[in-house]
Amino acid sequence: MKKTSIIVIIVVILVIIGIIWFGRAPAGPDTGMLPNNPSATTTAGASKPAIPVTETTKVSSKTSQFQNAELGFAVNYPTAWEADSTDSGVLFIMPIDTTQVSTVAKLEATVSVVSGKCAFPPVTTIKDRGTLTVGTSTLSMISMSNAVQGRNYFDRMYSLPAGNICYIFAFSSITQSPESKKLSGSNLTQAQNNNKAIVTTADNDFTAMVKSFTFVTGPQGVDETKAAPVKK
Fold it and tell me: Is 44 left (phi over 0), alpha (psi -120 to 50) or beta?
């Protein structure tokens, strides 16, 4: 009798375990979890890609546009330039025509957004001061030119205040001395002329880029002071 009771108890336990095991609901996706991709927002089962912070688009066969929605600006530039996004704006590398006899070693332009009032770096070799009107805005300008250890440096900077931030536009060029490459005679004269023409063209393209500057308003989030909490 005792043996039979033990068997019955074991059978009952096995039946209960079977009911619990086979009665479980099938595993499904955890709808309470956020999507794994932080760059997308799921609404009613549809995935919506996030708006890019920086974007480069081709405007024409010779012109492209760089836009940074977070920093609030866009500029047009020659497509031949190489645009590299930075934490504070964008760096443009200007190509140098190597088929010409010249000693131009570097041509760069930057657009940077900094906090605080606009202020040019302290320099003692200011060549020129002026202003530039872009739309309804007036930009301050300085240019600098000097020679150090056989290299000629030319820089031009513009500044544009906007509230509590400042947009800084900078052009920089480095030209080696023709004598450093042992150029002489007609090659020396040609290099000197080409150097001046290359830097002038790059400087003009830089100024045209500054003139194309426009403010960009990025996508706005929900005003939390007006957003009512959802009742559950």
Answer: left
Q: 3-class DSSP state for residue 41?
A: strand
- Look up the CATH number of domain 79-214: 2.60.120
**Closest CA relative to residue 170, chosen from 98, 104, 216, 106:** 106
- Closest listed residue to residue 80, CA positions, set 100, 60, 110, 54: 60
Is residue 111 predicted with pLDDT exceeding 80?
Answer: yes
pLDDT for residue 125: 84
Report the C-alpha gap between 135 and 19 in whole angstroms. 77
3-state secondary structure of 17: helix
Which helix H or strand E contains 20, and what residues bound it?
Answer: helix 2-22
Sequence-ordered strand ranges (E) for the chain: 40-43, 46-49, 54-58, 63-68, 73-78, 82-85, 89-93, 104-115, 126-134, 137-148, 151-162, 165-176, 214-215
- 187 phi, psi to nearest 5 deg: -65, -35
Is pTM beyond 0.85 here?
no
Pair 112, 92: CB distance under 8 Å: no
Mean pLDDT of all residues belonging to the chain: 82
Of 74, 51, 44, 87, residue with least CA distance to 220:
51
Alpha-carbon distance of 144 to 108, in angstroms, equals 15
Q: Look up residue 217 and give its two tokens.
A: 């308003």
